[in-house]
Design goal:
Blueprint lengths: L7 E3 L15 H6 L1 H16 L14 H13 L2 E5 L6 H10 L16 E5 L4 H10 L5 E6 L6 H18 L7 E6 L4 H9 L2 E5 L12 H9 L4 H14 L9 H16 L3 E6 L5 H15 L15 E4 L10 H6 L4 E10 L14 H6 L4 H18 L4 E8 L2 H22 L7 H15 L1
Helix pairs in contact: 2-15, 3-8, 4-8, 4-11, 9-15, 10-15, 11-15
The chain binds 5-phosphoarabinonic acid.
């Protein structure tokens, strides 16, 4: 049972004998202690020098974001967020986790804000479909790109801007909020020229670590999500991941176990499997965080290393009917991280009926949430019994406070894992190359 709304990690099974192939000895984890202390010092140095800023985000002044969100809520029917990668995945994950799942379909009176649309791919059919649904006279656009020059984002923005200016003329500039670097980049220059409202992405917060900046928080606040609660959860987790003990520091534990599973047990894949539909998109957010941060050709001394565990975003129980066969009997090269919500927002009892049907008779009297968690427990146990390594993250509920804890935990664990691997978790030379080559293709 969770205490005081705190997220908890249950990693007991990964140490147990039933899991001989995946089992990690407690001493192995404990032996990482000195290296983890070095990693903590390295993180501390970067924080002190101002090179990294994600750990300071829980303390930020959110009033400018709340003001901007209030203005949008008061004036807009539709809010279009344009961004990609670290400039969209976190925002999408927050909406999916914490807004009504059919937010856009609710009547305006019961909706907590305008309808929210995300444009990520520069896909003409998808963009045209979004345009079909917008009330252009009451649309606000949030263009999000830290660098200010990502091709997909700027292409979508140029199209939407033209459509808006056709619909409402010169006033379209008042309907754009640019979330970008404070000083640099094409979008910053355009925003100055056009007089757009802007919100900054701190220079020392990289794309995939920017969910708790205006990148994720403006769309969240616009949809009526409690962003202060989110940051309070993140702050609490920062406190808990600042201790120097593997027994109490959840980020050290999670990172240490996944690192050992990868490098000492050959579990080159991590399956991230939440059992709450609302948390599904967090799996996609984590997939980018883990992959882009840890997949590196060289370590910090320039040696060729080719690190990185491949993350899979799965979702329970649906993927029991899709992926589980492979997880149970396929290659033993994976470690499984489940996420479970102890309490769902709604309690939905399963009615008793058709007592002649064994399945219906068994289900009647339980609750849907109970069934979700029973399936999670059964899947975890089944994998454990076949010797596959499992870890579970328990959330007290899918609330802003719990999601804030989860996001911060996963960010911190990613950085710690990067430290253990000896690589730089904050760069992405591979992504940069593909951006350059895309532009060259266009020049051709
Ligand atoms: O995490 C990252 O740094 C990347 O995934 C970027 O977020 C992504 O490439 C988008 O970049 P930008 O925000 O500059 O448009």
């Amino acid at each position: 049972m969770n205490r005081r709304g705190a997220l908890e990690i249950d990693d007991r099974k990964i140490f147990e004998r039933e899991s001989p192939a995946g089992r990690i000895a407690r001493e192995e984890l404990a032996a990482l202690g000195p290296r983890l202390s070095e990693v903590r010092d390295w993180i501390g140095r970067m924080e002190k020098d101002g090179r990294i800023g994600y750990r300071a985000l829980p303390d930020q002044d959110v009033r400018p974001i709340l003001r901007a969100a209030r203005r949008v809520r008061e004036t807009a029917d539709d809010f279009v967020v344009i961004g990609i990668g670290g400039s969209s995945l976190g925002a999408v994950a927050l909406q999916a986790a914490l807004a009504h799942p059919f937010h856009n379909l609710l009547p305006r009176k019961t909706r907590k804000g305008p309808r929210v649309f995300f444009l990520e791919n520069p896909d003409p059919d998808y963009l045209a479909a979004v345009l079909d649904t917008l009330n252009l006279r009451k649309t606000v656009v949030n263009v999000v790109t830290k660098s200010g020059g990502t091709a997909e984002t700027m292409a979508n923005f140029l199209v939407i801007r033209k459509v808006l200016s056709k619909a409402i003329g010169k006033k379209h500039s008042e309907r754009v909020i640019a979330t970008t670097d404070r000083d640099n980049g094409d979008l910053r220059a355009i925003a100055r020229e056009e007089g757009y409202a802007t919100l900054p992405v701190p220079a020392n917060v990289g794309g995939r670590f920017s969910t708790l900046t205006a990148v994720g928080l403006l769309p969240a606040a616009t949809a009526g999500i409690d962003i202060r609660g989110l940051l309070a959860g993140a702050r609490e987790m920062r406190q808990r991941t600042s201790t120097s003990s593997i027994d109490t520091n959840d980020a050290w534990r999670l990172a240490g176990l996944l690192y050992l599973a990868d490098t000492a047990r050959g579990k080159r894949t991590v399956v991230f499997m939440p059992y709450a539909t609302a948390l599904r998109e967090i799996g996609f957010w984590f997939r980018q965080l883990w992959a882009e941060s840890l997949g590196k050709a060289r370590d910090r001394d320039g040696r060729e290393v080719h690190t990185g565990q491949t993350p899979i975003a799965a979702s329970g129980p649906v993927d029991q009917h899709s992926q589980l066969q492979l997880y149970m009997e396929g290659p033993d090269d994976k470690v499984y991280v489940f996420v479970r919500a102890e309490r769902f927002g709604k309690r939905v009892p399963i009615p008793r009926a058709f007592s002649g049907s064994k399945t219906c008779a068994l289900l009647g009297g339980h609750e849907l949430g109970g069934l979700m968690n029973a399936e999670q427990a059964a899947t975890e146990e089944a994998l454990h019994r076949t010797g596959r390594p499992v870890i579970r993250i328990d959330l007290p509920a899918v609330s802003p406070h719990a999601v804030g804890q989860l996001l911060f935990l996963l960010e911190e664990a990613t950085v710690v894992a990067g430290g253990l691997l000896g690589i730089d978790p904050f760069d992405q030379p591979g992504v940069e190359l593909s951006k350059i080559l895309t532009k060259r293709e266009l020049e051709k």
